[in-house]
Design brief:
Blueprint: E1 5-10, E2 13-18, H1 29-43, E3 50-55, E4 59-61, H2 78-95, E5 100-104, E6 107-109, H3 110-117, E7 121-125, E8 129-131, H4 145-153, H5 155-164, E9 167-169, H6 170-176, E10 181-183, H7 188-200, H8 204-217, H9 222-236, H10 240-250
Parallel strand pairs: 2-3, 3-5, 4-6, 5-7, 6-8, 7-10
Antiparallel strand pairs: 1-2, 8-9
Helix pairs in contact: 1-2, 4-5, 8-9
The chain binds ligand T3D.
């Protein structure tokens, strides 16, 4: 257990709060290890059906901790650190068979912004802002930034954000399509938890299939997607939640989904 990551369970939602507010939740080795462990735990815990990822204080995450991780004049093998920490984390988030709500509560920079974009539904408080800060320190976007950004906001904006390192506001981020919705700051934490809670009550296997197929679509052909949809829909047709959904419709009552695979 690490103080730099708060891990709470609220119903079927696992709430992960980056908790180094004095450093705008910058990612040091301890926090990265805690995040990796937290996602391993979530993957293996059937009682958890959605994740909420957010930050403590006025920041979401300022990216890599430049004091602890990169201080000093010696050259560092940044590729090794991406291989051992950031990349496994992004892969775990994308392949997790449960939805992740990223709640950008405040400033998001560098790998902090990009880790957040690995979530499934991205929301932001009006106070949030976003910076691909890498170029300011002689680096390029990592933690999936070169993959997520053009897909979310298009090539023109992705290239400009990465190359210029300019900060965009939450309102611009919404207009760009980087985030699903904005919320007023005072209601943000409540709205974020409500969204994650609503996802946790949905048919979890269907959410996993949506995630898997949309992940695949990014590098796929129509033929491949049609086949994948057929295979995943076949599996969903055998889930208790499909039976429950149709039964509830016929009985004109709200469905109660369990999220179970069989
Ligand atoms: O191998 C690898 O690890 C490679 C991976 C690289 C991934 C990356 O993410 S590289 C990019 C790293 N991040 C940055 O370059 C962003 C650095 N931070 C900033 O540019 C600014 O802090 C922000 C634009 C994010 C926010 O600005 P502002 O004015 O709102 O806040 P501030 O005053 O700059 O920061 C508040 C405090 O947080 C301050 O500490 P102090 O002076 O009050 O004691 C500041 O030093 C600290 N802080 C902010 N960002 C970081 C940080 N401390 C350590 N690392 C940070 N990244």
């Amino acid at each position: 257990m690490s103080d730099s990551l708060l891990v709470e369970t609220k119903g079927a939602v696992r709430v992960l709060t980056l908790n180094r507010p004095e450093r705008l939740n910058a990612l040091n080795a301890e926090l990265l290890a805690a995040l990796n462990a937290a996602f391993d735990d979530i993957a293996s815990d059937d009682s958890i059906r959605a994740v909420l990822l957010t930050g403590a204080g006025r920041g979401f995450c300022a990216g890599a901790d430049l004091m602890q991780n990169m201080g000093g004049s010696g050259k560092r093998d940044l590729g090794a650190s991406l291989d051992s920490t950031y990349n496994p984390l992004v892969r775990k988030m994308r392949s997790l068979r449960k939805p992740i709500v990223t709640a950008f509560n405040g400033v998001a920079a560098g790998a902090g912004m990009n880790l957040g974009l690995a979530g499934d539904i991205i929301i932001a408080a009006r106070a949030a802002n976003f910076t691909q800060a890498f170029i300011r320190i002689g680096l390029m976007p990592d933690a999936g930034g070169t993959y997520f950004l053009p897909r979310l906001i298009g090539e023109a904006r992705a290239r400009a954000l990465a190359m210029l390192g300019e900060t965009i506001t939450a309102t611009q981020a919404e207009a760009f399509g980087l985030v699903w919705k904005l919320y007023d700051d005072e209601h943000f934490a409540t709205e974020a938890l409500a969204l994650a809670t609503s996802l946790a009550a949905k048919p979890t296997q269907a959410l996993a299939a949506i995630k898997q197929s949309l992940n695949a679509a990014a590098t796929s052909t129509l033929d491949h997607q049609l086949n994948l949809e057929r295979d995943l829909q076949r599996e969903l047709g055998n889930t208790p939640d499909f039976t429950e959904g149709v039964t509830a419709f016929i009985e004109k009552r709200p469905a109660v989904f369990t999220g179970r695979a069989g």
